Amino acid sequence: MNYVVSLSGGMDSSTLLLRCLHMASIDNGSVTAMSFYYGQKHRVELDRAQALVDYIRSKGIDLKYEVIRLEGLQYLLNSALVEGGDEVPEGHYAHENMKATVVPNRNKIFASLTQSVALSLANEKRQEVSIALGIHAGDHAIYPDCRQEFRDADDAAFRIGNWESERVLYYTPYLMDDKYGILRDGQVLCENLGLDFNKVYALTNTSYKPIRIGATWYSDYKSASSVERIEAFIKLGVPDPVAYADETGSVTWEVARDHVEKVLSEYTEAA
């Protein structure tokens, strides 16, 4: 099978990329990965995505990769995640203020471009191509474009508007998993592909509020996306290899872990 992956540079999409590479190796398929620049504050994720691709290629694994640049879009968007937007909120993802991290129609924009590439590849190869999606049980109702009714409507429009669209399929291996389940699969996939787990996940960015100290980018550990990521590593029982920092400078994994454990405890008590 041939796969097209939207690679954000985060933990979920990076694991999904590994899953697709593993599946493609079984039946002599191909993997095409795409990243998007839309003026996001956490654009370090693009550097991480490229570094991960470079590392994978250094292990002799074939992978096509392109960055799609949507120049100027950030000046027309209203979201805390893009340059010029409000401050990214902190806390648990379920909090109402997480709506500030919605980027209007982001998944529709990405889906349209991914569908275009997948259909082009399918017609070129005269073979079926699967669009790989990292959607999982932890996807949030706070994001309307993560809901099933949105995906169904979007797919219907794609099929109405294109010839040969039946050649494009979907691959959703984590539909019933949470972030912990995805990370656990990442451990197995790294072993299967001959990749170093710590190297792979050190080259991912989940933070919506990355911190630059000198020439080095660190992840924050207080924004909701980081809290979710750290929770998965806590459940897995291994340290997160990503470097963390706060307003005081770089911090240890233990500092980040202890903060998240406190946030999770307070959220559980409040619920």
The helical percent reads 40-55%
Largest sheet features: 5 strands, parallel
What is the number of helical segments per DSSP (H or I, 4+ residues)?
8
- Rg is 18 Å
In the predicted model, the low-confidence regions spanning at least 5 consecutive residues are: none
What's the order of the H and E elements?
A: EHEHEHEHEHHEEHEEH
Distance between the termini: 44 Å
Category from helices, strands and their pairing: alpha/beta
How many β-strand runs?
A: 9
Keyword list:
globular; five-stranded parallel sheet; 271 residues; alpha/beta; single chain; two-stranded antiparallel ribbon
Description:
It is built from eight helices and nine strands. With 271 residues, it is of the alpha/beta class. The strands form three sheets. Strands 3-2-1-4-5 form a five-stranded parallel beta sheet, with helices on both faces. The protein has a two-stranded antiparallel ribbon with strand order 6-7. Strand 4 (129-132), helix 4 (148-160) and strand 5 (168-171) form a beta-alpha-beta unit. It is globular, with a radius of gyration of 18 Å. The model has no long low-confidence stretch (mean pLDDT 89).
